[in-house]
Records
---
Amino acid sequence: MNQSAANPVLVVMDPADGEGYALARARLLCEALGSPLELFACEFDQAMEGSHFRVTERLEAARTARVEARHDWLESHAAPLRDAGLEVRTEAIYANPRHEAVARRALETDAAFVVMRTHYHEWLSRATLSAADWQLIRICPAPLLLVKGGPWPQQPRFMAAVDPSHRDDRHARLDHAILDVAERLGGACGAETWVAHCIFSMASLESAASLSMMPEALGSSPEQYAGDLMQQLRTSVLRLLEGRELPAARLRLAEGRPEKELPRLVSELAIDLLVTGGISRSRLEQVFIGGTAERLLDRISCDLLVVKPPGFRCPIE
């Protein structure tokens, strides 16, 4: 998706977001980027569904009434934004599942960003990716901003999580896409932008070394191997930053798994937005959580922005 200022920021409006955090964040993006804003709502009522219901004129009228009421609600939120000078449109539909409706609308509008409020998920939702926001991490064609709540400070802090240790082109392109979005958004919002990379934990190497297996396998001691690896990956990340306005002084390397170390860095550096990547997976891998973005969602205190690699094709496209 080739985005410009003409591409809208699509905010998923939810009455459950009583504080209006998602809309506030979407407004901030629009004002910073000069983009139009679309307020989108998807209505569905399970009570109106099922084999015991026939699609009658009365049922269709009831669905239409729900959508019209939601559209009026969207317009009530759009009016003050228009008065403030923003270009705002609204769209309400009746559809299920919601995550597919949101992804389809992002495709139709060629959205620059999709913004959505997220809440803590119970174990079953996390294990099976049943919640709409978790499903959107997998299929959303636009960068997906999942809002935890609370306003950003006047100068927010962003952090881009990259992984140059992968050798395939898809992951390399994803790293550049993550940095592109973080740099563009950070510049527009006046943010202090950091870059982080988590290195495979040496604890497992030390455990294996205790069995006298690692020196032969590595060709060096575990300590020397760890030091060489750290320097090699630091060089790889610095190479990613060449030609960017992202200073090397704001690079943090952490030893450990991303789902453990990134939340620690978020807390330590008071990060307001973590930018990470989302790689599509097979049908089998979709059943239970496997991606870093999904594992991070309920472990970080800040907003999460998930970026897809160039050439990503939405499964419902």
---
Amino acid sequence: MKMNETRDNRKANGRAVRARANGSAAQRSARTASVERRTRETQVAVELALDGEGRAEVSTGVPFLDHMLESFARHGFFDLKLAAQGDLHIDEHHTVEDVGIVLGRAFRQALGDRSGIKRFGNAIVPLDEALCEAVVDISGRVFLAYNIAIRQERVGGFQTELVHDFMKGLSDEVGMNLHLNLRAGRNPHHVIEAAFKALARAMDAATAVEPRLRGVLSTKGTLS
């Protein structure tokens, strides 16, 4: 009698494990988004897969931003296709900010009701003398703490202050707390690249599926 009960328990446990695995796989397979936004200033289209391999096809007309987004996708293991056209004859501001906005909307769409995600993520990333920290809470609440002071006005032709505008657009549209802290750094290229890589690692952790979790990671019952 006890042996039969043990076998039954093992079978039930096996079914439960498979059900959890299948549920997690189903969540992962659906975690994609396609978003397009058109204004008089820009046209931005994004395709995003959260559970990717870090592949990127990016064309914004702003080479330095392309480089940062390719790095972001690679180190976050996100598959990203992003194309943007903007009024670059005026300056790069509208394009950079709007890319952040549309990428944020893509993350929001791909996450759905945010069931099953770990929600929190943090990373500290070095790049030679630069050291940047990113801390993320995909809570539905919007807050950006941007503690990255860059003395130089430009990296090549790219305006360094536009990094803040990109991060603000991204964090607002995802609906998350984002803290970016520069711990050390001299070269502005290194500083900005370390920030994007830290953000990628933090976002990868925060968007990851937690197999032990049912519903959302909140006592309120919602992350919206």
